[in-house]
Design goal:
139 residues; mainly beta; Jelly Rolls; five-stranded antiparallel β-sheet; four-stranded antiparallel β-sheet; 12% helix; 44% strand; globular
Length: 139
Amino acid sequence: MLFHKTLSVAANTLEKDASCVKVNVAPGLTDYVWVGFPPGCKGLVHVAIYHLHWQVWPWTPGEYFAWDGYVFLFRDRYPITQPPFELMLKAWNEDDTYSHKVTFGVTIEPMAPMTEISALEMVLLNRRLMYEHMKMPRE
């Protein structure tokens, strides 16, 4: 299943006042993910994607996507297994003159029965849940 959203970010939007939009998705495993920056963004628009208050993409906390005239496309098998079934886009814009639009998309495959999830996917899910529960910083 394909889910996408376009987010308009006003000029002079600080990170602490980031524009946010929810993307309702279905439970399952993500497959393809893309973040598109139209020409003119000049690397001034920054985007991070969250699930359950956990930064999912880019994986490193505090990092973000920022480009100009580029669609960043990658594959990632991230499990979305508990409600609410939504991702959150957070974006801010350092451009002092123009607002910009950013497009996000994700494909999600229905979740296989738990016995068919790979060992790596189970470890990643358990690690994420452990970090959230213990409020530990990620490496």
